[in-house]
Amino acid sequence: MTIQTNAWHPDTCGCAFEYTWDDQDLDRVRTLNKVIHVCDLHKIISLTPSSHYSTVSDENVRKNKLYGRFLGVSDLTQTDASGNVNFKNGVDVSFSWDGTDYARILSASITGYNLSGANKNSVQDWCDSTFGFGKVAIN
Ligand SMILES: [Zn+2]
After folding, report:
1. Average of pLDDT values for 42-47?
2. SS3 for 110?
3. How many beta carbons lie within 10 A of that of residue 76, not counting itself?
4. What's the pLDDT band for 26 if we cut at 50, 70, 90?
5. Ligand 1 being an ion, which residues bring their Cβ within 5 A of it?
6. Helices marked H in 8-116 — which ranges?
7. Which tens digit of pLDDT belongs to each residue from 62-107?
8. pLDDT value for 44
């Protein structure tokens, strides 16, 4: 058992954290060691270091899972020779955030393809049941 220390700079905001993990732990459980930086969007005074870390982690996981959900929409994707599913050429998903602290809402937009209303509704319903109502807006 060797405890490793890493810095994490999420791609969903400007916060930064230092966490530790046991390199023998196959689950790679991360334990917050310290908050390195608090961004302007997560400055609420009631955020403790652990709730700050979990709030930012939840946002990052939400964005990553939604990206994966879009890769499950066959109209948007192609499969390469190795069997990897990617967005078709010219298709991309972009993310933005509204709000601050605990109440940030993730907005997602598809460019390069006009996603049908049925597909948008399907992804939105999945978001509402996976993350809770009002956490994600599909544009
Ligand atoms: Zn932040």
Report:
1. 79
2. strand
3. 20
4. confident
5. 13, 15, 39, 42
6. 49-70
7. 999 999 999 999 999 999 999 999 999 999 999 999 988 778 999 9
8. 79
Structure tokens that stand for 83 in this block: 């069997």
Q: Among the listed ranges 13-22, 26-35, 88-97, 104-113, which one has the minimum average pLDDT value?
A: 26-35
Compute, in angstroms, the gap from residue 13 CA to the centroid of ligand 1. 5
Kindly give the distance from the C-alpha atom of residue 71 to the centroid of ligand 1, in angstroms, as a whole number: 26
Distance from the alpha carbon of residue 131 to the mean position of ligand 1, in angstroms:
19
Q: Are 107 and 51 in contact (CB under 8 A)?
A: no
15 alpha carbon to ligand 1 midpoint, in Å? 4
CA–centroid distance, 95 to ligand 1, in Å, is 15
Buried b vs exposed e over 123-135: b needs ≥16 C-beta within 10 Å? beebbeeebeeeb
Give domain limits for the chain.
3-138
- Euclidean distance between the first and final Cα of the chain, in Å? 46
Q: How far is the CA of 101 from the centre of ligand 1 (A)?
A: 8
Determine contact, residues 112/92, Cβ cutoff 8 Å: yes
